Amino acid sequence: MATARSEDGPDLSSFDPSRPDASAQVAGLLFALLLVDQNAHIAEANHAAENMLGRSAKRLVGRRLTDVIGPLDPRVESRIDTADAALVARDLRIHAGEVEKRVNLTVSPLAGYFGWRVVTLSEVGHDETGSDDELASSLGAPSILAHEIKNPLAAIRGAGQLAARKLPHADKKLARMITDEVDRIARLIDRMQQLGSRSSEPAAACNPHEAIRSAIATVRAAGGKSVEIKEEFDPSIPPIWANRDALEQVLINLISNARDAASAGARGEVIVRTRFVSGLAFSAIRFGRAVRVPVEITVSDNGAGIEPAMRDHVFEPFVTSKKSGQGLGLALVRKLVRDMNGSISHDRDARAGMTHFRLHLPLARNAKS
């Protein structure tokens, strides 16, 4: 049986009226989408755009795009202001309120509608700079050699302990220094092995607030400068899908770093917040599929912030601003978060004087978003 077909279009007889229409498709996009008119004023904004820009569609419509996300590179602004110009800009810095974000931006003219264009914004997460394979490769040699290094280290440590028993009391300090340094090197190798590992710990339903409180208790028990750690939790958040031990390790690292950064001020403060963010606005691409990550855990501090030159590299191995730091803590955090199909990023709110590290994690498999 022949099927009806339009001269210039697809087969119309097979059209399914229950299929999502254009509005539903736009609303379901994981990236921000804006419709702009001939004067580059925003005419429509989807839900993901509201979340990314921190404003409702009502507050966005009618405003000039460059006023909302600018100031921008003059070349980018010129293309946006040209009514029929297309544009692809990667790793572009925009301003969403007081927060600076890195995004990939596209501007696509609509055929048959002069001046009307569709603008997309997809955030470049700081944890996406480099693949897991690249990270594993960069640490491959140390990981392979770790076993061979640890064997002589164990012998050196044993010799140091034996020497400590036989040396005069005045010289025992030198022997203890040997064993302490061997232990430090062994811990460094362990962390490098963990970073280079391609395996991940099994995930299960997990109460995020229990993990946060456990991490806070651990940080407080470790001592150090007195800094107030506040909890601002959304009690309605359902269980997340994560490895509890790995999540606690991530939080201990982030909270410890925040405490160290805040302690330099007269009134150091760390805030740990949780909130539920629409799963349409955030995604982590893993294994070729999109994963909704609507649960947000934010660790904030009122310290001086990360040096501008380091902001794009804080999750890379061996990058640190601490004099005695190894630069592996945040690299390990990124690895553990990725293993949980999550996303991590950071930003600086200059007006409030706060640095925010944001975790986005998926819901437990039986939880509803």
Largest beta sheet, briefly?
5 strands, antiparallel
Strand ordering within the main sheet: 2-1-5-4-3
Can you write the helix and strand succession as a string? HEEHHHHEEEHHHEHEEHEEEEHEE
Query: How much helix, percentage-wise, in residues?
Result: 25-40%
* Rg, nearest Å: 25 Å
Find the structural class using helix and strand composition: alpha+beta
Beta-strand residue percentage: 15-25%
Report, as a whole number of angstroms, the end-to-end distance. 44 Å
Number of helices: 11
**Average pLDDT over all residues:** 78
- Unreliable residue runs: 1-7, 126-131, 135-142, 280-285
Count of DSSP strands: 14
Shape: elongated
The oligomeric state is: single chain
Report on this model:
- This protein is elongated.
- The N terminus is likely disordered.
- 36% of the residues lie in helices and 23% in strands.
- With 369 residues, the protein is an alpha+beta fold.
- The chain has a five-stranded antiparallel sheet with strand order 2-1-5-4-3.
How does the SSE layout of this entry go?
Layout: H1 22-27, E1 32-36, E2 42-45, H2 47-53, H3 57-60, H4 65-69, H5 74-81, E3 87-96, E4 99-109, E5 117-123, H6 132-138, H7 140-166, H8 172-196, E6 204-206, H9 208-221, E7 228-232, E8 240-242, H10 244-262, E9 269-276, E10 283-286, E11 289-292, E12 295-301, H11 329-339, E13 343-349, E14 354-361
Parallel strand pairs: 7-9
Antiparallel strand pairs: 1-2, 1-5, 3-4, 4-5, 6-8, 9-12, 10-11, 12-14, 13-14
